[in-house]
């Protein structure tokens, strides 16, 4: 039946923002989606609680998906946290927590997702414009997202022999619960829009469409890439 052939895709961080939009988009395009999140949505009884910074939790997530669905061919990792703190006053534990979630968490998802994904499948991680554009007060986040770009390339090398593709996507500003607090800081939003040819922030659904493409066979020859999606923010 069609249901048996629908691709099974795990969306981590799928309870909010870009991940939530991605789960909706993929379902609308025929995927069977497993939402996993630190705070799983109450209205989705099949959602799984996961902490990407906790290795046992990540391994258990993918084991559960295999048990429930017989396997999976896609993973999108949208889990992320940030802080705003200048380096000279940055609490080291807070720095480590951002690295734990955004970089070590991405590693654990590639490790345990990569070990169990069906050959020919695809994993996509969320990096950021901040992987190459430093932001004041964003040392931990920028460092984690830059590291994630190289992590993606290494994983693509290692998983290529199994035809498993590994890519990253780097959005510019998308207003979500993650970025809403920074929007209250005078000038932050205007500074972004002033330097962006398309002069607007992105929509979660626009990021979801790119993620769906990277999971699909239309992207069968794309691996190890970090794809910018930012309204042209790098151009001026
Ligand atoms: P969001 O806060 O709306 O969603 C992030 C989700 O991740 C939340 O549901 C949260 O519960 C979950 N999460 C946090 N820590 C987790 C953990 N330890 N384990 C599992 N889940 C966890 O944020 P968003 O804006 O949708 O961001 C999604 C991804 O996109 C993040 O990686 C973020 O860094 C990246 N990104 C966002 C923007 C933007 O402007 N919004 C820009 C570039 C990159």
Class based on secondary structure composition and strand pairing: alpha/beta
- Integer average pLDDT: 96
Helix content: 40-55%
CATH fold-level label: Rossmann fold
Q: What's the number of extended β-strand segments?
A: 7
| Name of the CATH first level | Alpha Beta
Q: State the low-pLDDT regions, or none.
A: none
User: How many distinct folded domains?
Assistant: 1
Radius of gyration, rounded?
17 Å
InterPro entries: KR_dom, NAD(P)-bd_dom_sf, Sc_DH/Rdtase_CS, SDR_fam
GO molecular function: oxidoreductase activity
Protein name: SDR family oxidoreductase
Keywords: NAD, Oxidoreductase
Describe the 3D structure:
It is a single chain. This protein is 42% helix and 14% strand. The chain contains eight helices and seven strands, in the order αβαββαβαβαβαααβ. The protein has a seven-stranded parallel β-sheet, sandwiched between helices. Helix 5 (139-159) links the parallel strand 5 (122-126) and strand 6. The mean pLDDT is 96. Residues 7-172 form the Ketoreductase domain. Keywords: NAD, Oxidoreductase.
Q: Strands, helices and their partners?
A:
Elements: H1 2-5, E1 8-12, H2 17-28, E2 32-37, E3 48-49, H3 55-69, E4 74-77, H4 92-116, E5 122-126, H5 139-159, E6 165-171, H6 180-183, H7 188-194, H8 204-215, E7 226-229
Parallel strand pairs: 1-2, 1-4, 2-3, 4-5, 5-6, 6-7
Helix pairs in contact: 2-8, 3-4, 4-5
